[in-house]
């Protein structure tokens, strides 16, 4: 029984130490706080010193309850140590003692572990010491979300309007939200800026914070960027994160209204399609825009007006009015539209003018326009004069005709008008071409053309040298008349074209020489009766005669022969003579051949009579008669090649 013997000894020792005043000294040192992220492992160190060493030292750990009472969670004695049962830390803590350091290890720290922990060191003597450390647990919140107000915000609102809301969740300690407008922080300002926040503590102990921004907006806020900034804590630092930036719709009344011509670009002319547009520098949903033409009073409730095929009457002032339907305040803007015009060309004298030959011709052309014009005169598509006046000092028949006055506006493409003037020149007719025209023709039908200038239009008559009147077709031309006559000729004849009007007459003579051309006539005689004693008698002949014709046409006052000309007549005579010579040579050769055959006795034996009817006729018994246009004589060539008189036939 050692213990009963030892107890008095220990008590005695204590009395001795107490009497001597030799108590053990105990000191404890701990950090004020230990910071750790939720979910990590926390280590709280308790540094202590004692004269007795570890053999007689007791270490105890406590945490402070909300009511300030202590709750022991771990106890270590010289001979025994263990975590207290039925505490929030029973399964998550352990104690590591090394030398004079006792480290309390807490695993899987949560935000509920954000407590104050106490380390108590006791010795055998009644002396003890303690230290305190506050465990701070941190949890980063989620990324902030921001939502802008869906509807627009009016600058006319009396109270601050909601701009948006910003929220952040599951942070510890509680995150802080700050609002910004264009990078400038917003603070609560009476009647101007209002910030309302709400805090929610989740079942996990984490904080969720929501903040709402309300403010009175201005027109400048239509382009402002709003966002929120979240400030939160981590071990040893402070962090910040920004939300997305938002923009709100700001409704504000206009201070200016603009109206302009959308099309056409540049100057406007009659006939164009006019489109006007109207805009204001406001942004108000409940408003009415009206465009009105002050001259006519017509209007449309729209920011666009279209007018087609405009005239000068569509010019003038157009006004655009903006009406705010909330308070019916109005603001207007206007523009002036000029529609350029070009009236029809006016020629003086109107339609036509008649002047005497060699008199002066004067005419003028004008067109009323809002812009500068250019005037040109044309005749037969050729430029004859520039400017509004047309002047000819001495008119001739060449002056007569249709003139066109063209008025254009150089500044605007497409602005153009024109008018015409018929110029007539009075005077005795003039027949185009020489007064006497010589014509030779092979044809039996001729066409004669006679053109005369003059005003009034001449009357054209056709007559022949023997006093006959020829029927002809007459047509009026730009400067006179034209007539064409067609008739048959059998011999040379003179034809007269007589053109006359109120101021005189003119005659042109056509001397038509008819040339008759005859081709050689070939007569073939074939014997058909039996003749006596080696004589073939010619008693049948066939004559073929061809006479060509020539068509003469007189066109445009000039006598022409489209098929043959006088040069052709000379060539034709030479051709006929050559044909006659060749025919004579061929007949001579044929006669020689027949004579040779006859001498040889191969045809028509030279003795005795022959019954011609019993023989077949052949080209051995042919008598050819050649006649020319220039002789009455016929040459007979017999089989003996001798010349025979016609009466010998």
From TrEMBL:
Any one GO MF annotation of this record: vascular endothelial growth factor receptor 2 binding
Bilayer topology annotation: Single-pass membrane protein
GO annotation terms (biological process): homophilic cell adhesion via plasma membrane adhesion molecules; regulation of Rac protein signal transduction; regulation of wound healing
Extent of the signal sequence: 1-24
Subcellular location: Membrane
Highest rank taxon of the organism: Eukaryota
Keywords: Disulfide bond, Membrane, Signal, Transmembrane, Transmembrane helix
Segments traversing the membrane: 575-598
GO cellular component terms attached to this protein's record: cell-cell contact zone; membrane
Domain Ig-like: 4-136, 144-247, 253-332, 343-422, 429-513
Principal location class: membrane
Keyword Signal attributed: yes
One Pfam entry name: C2-set_2
Name of the protein described by the UniProt record: Ig-like domain-containing protein
Gene: mcamb
């Amino acid at each position: 029984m050692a213990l009963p013997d030892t107890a008095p000894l220990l008590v005695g020792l204590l009395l001795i130490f107490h009497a001597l005043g030799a108590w053990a000294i105990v000191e404890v040192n701990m950090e004020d706080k230990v910071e750790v992220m939720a979910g990590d492992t926390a280590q709280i160190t308790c540094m202590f010193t004692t004269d007795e060493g570890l053999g007689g030292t007791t270490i105890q750990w406590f945490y402070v309850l909300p009511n300030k009472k202590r709750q022991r969670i771990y106890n270590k004695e010289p001979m025994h140590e263990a975590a207290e049962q039925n505490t929030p830390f029973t399964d998550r803590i352990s104690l590591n003692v090394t030398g004079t350091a006792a480290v309390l290890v807490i695993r899987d720290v949560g935000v509920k572990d954000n407590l104050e922990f106490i380390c108590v060191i006791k010795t055998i003597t009644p002396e003890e010491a303690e230290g305190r450390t506050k465990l701070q647990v941190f949890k980063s919140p989620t990324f902030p979300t921001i939502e802008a107000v869906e509807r627009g915000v009016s600058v006319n609102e009396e109270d601050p309007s909601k701009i948006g809301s910003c929220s952040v969740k599951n942070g510890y300690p509680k995150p802080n939200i700050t609002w910004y407008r264009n990078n400038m922080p917003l603070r609560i300002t009476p009647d101007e800026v209002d910030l309302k926040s709400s805090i929610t503590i989740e079942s996990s102990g984490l904080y969720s914070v929501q903040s709402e921004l309300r403010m009175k907006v201005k027109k400048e806020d239509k382009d402002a960027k709003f966002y929120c900034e979240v400030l939160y804590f981590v071990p040893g630092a402070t962090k910040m994160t920004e939300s997305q930036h938002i923009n709100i719709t700001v409704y504000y009344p206009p201070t200016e209204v603009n109206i302009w011509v959308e099309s056409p670009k540049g100057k406007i002319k009659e006939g164009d399609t006019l489109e006007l547009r109207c805009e204001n520098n406001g942004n108000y949903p409940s408003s009415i825009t009206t465009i009105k033409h002050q001259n006519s009073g017509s209007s449309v409730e729209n920011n666009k007006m279209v007018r087609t095929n405009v005239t000068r009457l569509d010019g003038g002032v157009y006004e655009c009015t903006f009406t705010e339907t909330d308070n019916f305040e109005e603001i207007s803007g206007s523009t002036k539209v000029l529609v350029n015009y070009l009236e029809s060309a006016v020629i003086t004298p109107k339609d036509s003018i008649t002047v005497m030959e060699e008199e002066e011709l004067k005419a003028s052309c004008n067109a009323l326009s809002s812009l500068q014009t250019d005037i040109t005169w044309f005749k037969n598509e050729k430029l004859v004069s520039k400017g509004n006046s047309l002047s000819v000092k001495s008119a001739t028949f060449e002056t007569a005709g249709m003139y066109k006055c063209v008025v254009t506006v150089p500044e605007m493409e497409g602005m153009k008008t024109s008018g015409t003037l018929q110029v007539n020149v009075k005077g005795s007719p003039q027949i185009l071409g020489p007064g006497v025209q010589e014509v030779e023709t092979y044809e039996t039908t001729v066409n004669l053309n006679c053109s005369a200038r003059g005003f009034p239009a001449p009357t054209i008559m056709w007559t022949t040298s023997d006093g006959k009147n020829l029927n002809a077709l007459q047509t009026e031309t730009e400067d006179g008349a034209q007539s064409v006559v067609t008739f048959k000729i059998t011999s040379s004849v003179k034809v007269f074209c007589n053109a006359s009007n109120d101021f005189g007459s003119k005659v042109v003579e056509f001397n038509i020489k008819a040339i008759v051309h005859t081709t050689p006539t070939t007569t073939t005689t074939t014997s058909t009766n039996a003749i006596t004693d080696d004589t073939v008698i010619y008693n049948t002949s066939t004559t073929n005669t061809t006479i060509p014709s020539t068509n003469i046409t007189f066109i445009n006052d000039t006598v022409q022969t489209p098929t043959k000309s006088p040069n052709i007549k000379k060539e034709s005579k030479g051709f006929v003579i050559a044909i006659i010579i060749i025919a004579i040579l061929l007949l001579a050769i044929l006669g020689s051949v027949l004579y040779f055959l006859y001498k040889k006795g191969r045809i028509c034996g030279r003795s005795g009579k022959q019954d011609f009817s019993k023989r077949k006729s052949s080209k051995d018994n042919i008598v050819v008669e050649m006649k020319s246009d220039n002789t009455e004589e016929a040459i007979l060539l017999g089989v003996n090649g001798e010349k025979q008189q016609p009466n010998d036939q």
